[in-house]
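Fig. S4 source data, part A: sequence.
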Amino acid sequence: MSSLSLESINDEEFERLRTNGIKINYWAVCKRKVWLYSKGLRMEPLSERVTLGRLLHEQAYPDLVRREVLLDDLIKIDVIEAESKILEVKYSRKFKEAALLQVSYYLYYLRRMGAGDLTGELRFPKERKKEQVSLSPEIESAIMEALRSIATIEAMDSPPEADFTTVCRVCAYCELCWG
């Protein structure tokens, strides 16, 4: 998460920029992936890693009944553990920063919608790890930067350039970028 700009987003700008959580997550990993996803290219159903993550998500924490809450047809919260706590279940901590930004965006979104100050928790059941998430001015600034950047990326005529990294090998979009 990069530079700080404590300038906030007003209601009108937030309404225009709000997006789904997966784009926030993808933005933290790869800007090219945001563009491809925003153009309707869905490679996730073909990805073994995504399938494993979905299975883990479905089987983890079976005692928690409030699962997959979809709000405004934009954000899908994995689990609501208590009135003031949301959980996001992830396959591994490999993309922890992206997951952290995604959960933070959910908290920010919910607060903008009048839910108050909630807390979040990233859970990595395979690794038996948890991480608490709460909003801070720095995280809110990163969310604002992401929202503005995503809007810019989506308006581009062609995808942004990307460098091949080790992350690319496990990406569902690898075939589209690198053949």
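Fig. S4 source data, part B ends here. Strands lie at 67-71, 75-82, 85-89, 119-124, 129-133.
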